[in-house]
Amino acid sequence: MLKWNRITFNPRIMAGQACIRGMRIPVSLVVNLVAYGKTTTEILAKYPDLEPEDIEQALKYVAWLAREQVYPIQETEKVG
Q1: Which one-letter DSSP state was computed for residue 53?
Q2: What whole-number distance in Å separates Cα of residue 15 and Cα of residue 21?
Q3: SS3 call for 51
Q4: Distance of alpha carbon 23 from the chain centroid
Q5: Which phi and psi angles does 14 have, rounded to 5°?
Q6: 18 Cα distance to chain centroid
Q7: Which residues of 42-60 are buried (b: 16+ CB within 10 A; e: fewer)?
Q8: DSSP letter (8 states) at residue 49
């Protein structure tokens, strides 16, 4: 199992969403900023509590989550 030392889950912080180091900065926010073209430098300027390693680990965490395998239902398996 992978170790996520910068990704935390606490039901009292952001309703248990994956966050960065127990702060109210969700992983999803960081990843969305990257997805919409923000650079690490821009993100760190807007969120000075973050560190470059936080952004890197957020991206790796989401990449790991996206490895989920999806098996489409074959036409003969559809119900109804």
Answers
A1: H
A2: 15
A3: coil
A4: 14
A5: 55, 40
A6: 7
A7: ebbeebeebeeebbebbee
A8: T
At 77, is the secondary structure helix, strand, or coil? helix
Q: What is the CA radius of gyration of the chain?
A: 16
- Which domains does the chain possess? 7-65 (1.10.10.10)
**pLDDT tens digits along 20-64:** 999 999 999 999 999 999 999 999 999 999 999 999 999 999 999
User: What's the pTM?
Assistant: 0.81
Judged by DSSP in three states, 66 sits in: coil
Sole residue written with tokens 């239902």: 73
Dist. CA 18–CA 28, nearest whole Å = 8
The continuous run of DSSP H or E covering 45 comes out as helix 40-46
Backbone angles phi, psi at 64, to 5 degrees: -65, -45
